[in-house]
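I am writing to request your help with a piece of structural work I have in hand. Here, with my thanks, is the record as I have it:
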Amino acid sequence: MPTASPTGSTAPVPAPAEHFDVLIVGAGISGIGAAKHLGDQCPGKRFVVLDALEGFGGTWRTHTYPGIRSDSDLYTFGYRFKPWTGPPIATAQEIQRYLGEVIAENDLARHIRYRHRIDAASWSSETNCWTVDAHRSDTGERLRFTTSFLWMCQGYYRHAKGHTPDWQDMDRFQGRIVHPQTWPSDLDYRGKRVLVIGSGATTATVVPAIAADTAHTTVLQRSPTYFLPAPNVNELADTLRALEIDEAWIHEIVRRKILRDQHLFTVRALEESDTVKQELLGAVRAYVGDEEVEKNFTPRYRPWQQRLAFVPDGDLFKGILAGKASVVTDEIDRFTEKGVLLRSGRELEADIIVTATGFDLSILGDIAFAIDGRPLDLHDTVTYRGMMFTGVPNLLWIFGYFRASWTLRVDLLADFVCRLLRHMDRLGKQRVEVALRPEDGNLPKLPWIDPDNFNPSYLIRAMDALPRRLDRPEWQHTQDYWREKTEIPAIDLDGKEFVYR
């Protein structure tokens, strides 16, 4: 029954709390991987997966814009435990099918509850538990859970709305403005003039998918991005299949080779940046020529300061060559009734404007967190390897890699969580948190990520809300998979940075 509040209003009372050993937030690629590993490595743990959406998939469910595909190869974006047998760059539908198979093959559906949106999470040092308040998005029913360990797998951006800058006079535009993250199902772009604002991976996906059907598609960018055109095939995998090698072996061999090649490329991007820059520009030049590269495809930053945009089979550039797409490098002065007026004085007219301008970071799912009754300000904490935070007990956040596939860290951190939980059981402890050691106390607290190393806009905008780091590998998210794949399995769980109670 409803109960009266201090103001006299009534509110539904949540159902009695259900308790789980582990509560996983999110049923996307992180949460599904976490559930699989937890079931295998800690079979005695009772766990639940809560997701706000109506089904699994996260990004691959919410993103429905034309051409939606991965920007990482699926041999490394896929899990280590399930071979990938399709093309390296996959569509959202192919990834959804893969995730569905993981759920079915590992009997995970019984652990997942959809349409469960979490509103708040509160830690109590008296009970050594998290209390999680949620509601059903379809019925409004309020629900309460308690859990000994909270595993945040909700991703890193807000699904409901993408980031669109507040340009002057946007309301004057007489056409339609859409963001790819919330692409309308009724948007008809056939025969229309389409202006796509942005220069990243989303633009590189949308433009090839729509350009042939539009009157013309114009890409407006403030500054160019590095593109990597290459065939959407893996010759080694195809050769091994022709030799009838088992798919599990193919997956592992190809995965290792890709990771080795990516590591060498990343090192070269840092140590031989000018050479790597010319190699990347040369690959684009082969499609569009010197003048276009000089004008629209030469970035201002060095390779890998921002994520590379993979262009399978050069499809973005083929549209430019066919005259169905073009690129303009300039800045927006303001919107007009017919389109946008640029700083150069040129007006770009359009019927539809697509703001492929990125997303806003969602830090711990935008959930209201509290520790012993005090609201949690994550910026006041220091991160332990980008996964745990000082003063925040029994919680781990999966935040993946920028220069390697996100899922690589899902597998690594899942192993760590399961090992940590087993270690706590052996010690007979109910609580673990990380704390700075005496030798760490005088180190300056730095921003979450070094902007000279990696500086995408969505991170820069959110830096004041993110945890801080120290200038030591264990107190930062190094973004270095090739280092972490050895270091994380070797973490000493009895080290001074771990405090158990």
The chain has two domains: 14-159+361-500, 170-242+269-355.
